[in-house]
Design goal:
about 140 residues, mainly alpha, 4 helices
């Protein structure tokens, strides 16, 4: 189960890189007043997820329960920031038809990538929790 969590975490990260790259390339950092996603939330989500992934990889080699729980605890604010950003993104996506000249960067997110990122993220949190609990 720990390896399955690593795989879903890496798939989640791949989708996250696509979304982050899109957000940056479409002006998310250059035009912070036009985006619905606060840069501290975006980069905090990214950094905490990377740290959690590193802790998880160390856990796979060290097999110390404390590391599994640390990775899980790190995933909690990652998940909350992700839900926050999803809630901020969704109204902008729905209003896509009424696009003006100054579109927020997140309007360019591929919906399939957003959905996949979310599904793999939820799966990762569940697998990490089950592994930390010793299930499987």
């Amino acid at each position: 189960m720990a390896i399955a969590a690593l795989i879903t975490w890496l798939l989640t990260a791949a989708g996250g890189f696509v979304l982050l790259g899109t957000w940056i390339s479409k002006g998310g950092t250059r035009q912070p007043s036009s985006t619905q996603l606060p840069p501290p939330a975006v980069f905090g989500h990214f950094l905490l997820a990377v740290v959690g992934l590193i802790v998880w990889i160390i856990y796979l080699f060290a097999d110390k329960d404390a590391l599994a729980w640390t990775a899980f605890v790190l995933l909690l604010p990652v998940a909350l920031l992700g839900l926050f950003m999803f809630a901020r993104w969704l109204p902008g996506y729905r209003a896509r038809a009424a696009s003006g000249p100054q579109q927020p960067a997140e309007r360019h997110f591929p919906v399939a990538v957003v959905a996949g990122h979310g599904v793999f993220a939820v799966t990762t949190v569940i697998l990490v929790l089950l592994t930390a609990l010793g299930v499987g």
